[in-house]
Amino acid sequence: MSAAIEKLLERAVLVMERIERVLPQPLSEPQWGEAIAWRYRKRASGHGVLEPVRHVSDMNLADLQEIDGQKEKLQQNTLQFVKGLPANNVLLTGSRGTGKSSLIKACLNAYASQGLRLIEVDKEDLTDLPDIVDVVSGQPQKFIIFCDDLSFEDGEGGYKALKSILDGSVAASTPNVLIYATSNRRHLLPEHMKDNLTYTHTEDGEVHPGEVIEEKISLSERFGLWISFYPFSQEEYLTIVAQWLRSLGATEAVIQSSGPEALVWALERGSRSGRVAYQFARDYVGRMGQGASTQRSL
Fold it and tell me: Cβ neighbours of residue 244 under 8 Å, at least 6 residues apart?
C-alpha cells in the first residue's frame, strides 16, 4: 500500500472519530453506588449524562412543620414504592415556598437506606425520559424521577414525553420508577380566557369542557396522587420560624423574642412561607451571633 493511501486512510479514521464524538450517544449507565441522587444533564454535544450529586440536602421529615397531612400522604406512597407495593406518580402543587420539593428530598433521605434513589431532570430534558427509564429499569433500586417547578407552555416537547411516560405509552410501566413533580400550576399548562369558549352546553343546562380544556387537564390527571399545599397562617409561620431557629442552635430566649421581626420579615417579602421562615431564621441567628452555619436547600 502506498504512503499516500495510508495517509488518506489515517485522515479518514480521524474524521470518523470526530463525527462519532458529536453524534448523539446512548445514555451510559453510571456507577450507582456513587450516590443516592443524580442529575440528568445535556452536554454541549447533545450527549446526556447522569451526574452524581455529591452533597445531597440533609433535609429530614421532622424538619418540615405544619404540613403533616401532605407529609403523611407522600411518605405513605413512598414507603409503598420502596416495599415493592403499588404506588402512584405524584404531583405536588400549591403556593411557593411551602415545602413541596423539600418534602421529596426528606423522603429520599428517609428511605435511601432501603434502596430509594432520585434522578433530577429539568423540564427542558423531559424529551429524554424514555432513555433514562430504559437505563434504570433493570436496576434493583427504586428510582424517583424528580421534576421541580414543572409547567409547560403550549407546544413544548417535554409535555408529550411526560404524558406518555406517565400513562399512555404502548410500553408497560416500569415498576421501579415513579415520577414526582412539583408545580405552582395544578394543570401544568397556561389557561387563557379564550379556552372557555370551547365549553359546550346541553339542553338541560349541563356544562362540558371542550377539547382544549380537556387537553390541558389531561396531563395532571395522569398523576395518580395530587398533594396540595396552601399559604401558612401567621401562627403556622411563627411555628415554622421557631422550628428553624431551634434547629440552627438558637436559645429559647432568642426564639421567644424573634416573633415581631419574623412578621416584619414576612411582610417585606409578601409571603409567609416555609422558605421565608428559614431565610429569616438564618439571618436572625447570624445577627444574634448564635447557631451553627448549617446550609440547607429549600
Answer: 277, 278, 280, 281, 282
Look at the alpha carbons of 183, 186, 189, 193 in this order and tell me if their dihedral is positive or negative: negative
Q: Number of helices (H) and strands (E), helices first, in the chain? A: 10, 9
The whole-angstrom separation of Cα 193 and Cα 153 is 15
For residue 158, what are the contacts with CB-CB under 8 A and spacing of at least 6?
A: 123, 124, 125, 126, 127, 152
Q: How far apart (Å, rounded) are the C-alpha atoms in residues 70 and 86?
A: 19
Name the grid cell of 59. Answer: 433535609
* pLDDT at residue 83 in the model: 95
Q: State pLDDT tens for residues 108-135.
A: 999 999 999 999 998 888 888 888 888 8
Going through the chain in order, the beta strands assigned E by DSSP cover: 37-42, 48-52, 90-94, 116-121, 142-147, 177-183, 200-201, 207-208, 225-229
For 239, the grid coordinates are 411555628
**What is the pTM assigned to this prediction?**
0.77
Q: Which residue has the cell 435511601?
A: 112
Model pLDDT for residues 134-145, shown as the tens digit of each residue:
888 888 999 999
Mean residue pLDDT of the chain comes to 80
Which residues partner with 117 through β-bridges? 143
The single-letter DSSP state of residue 184 is S
8 A C-beta contact, residue 274 and residue 103: no
In terms of Cβ atoms closer than 10 Å to its own Cβ (0-12, 13-18, 19+), residue 270 is exposed
Strands 48-52, 37-42: pairing kind: antiparallel
3-state SS class at 119:
strand
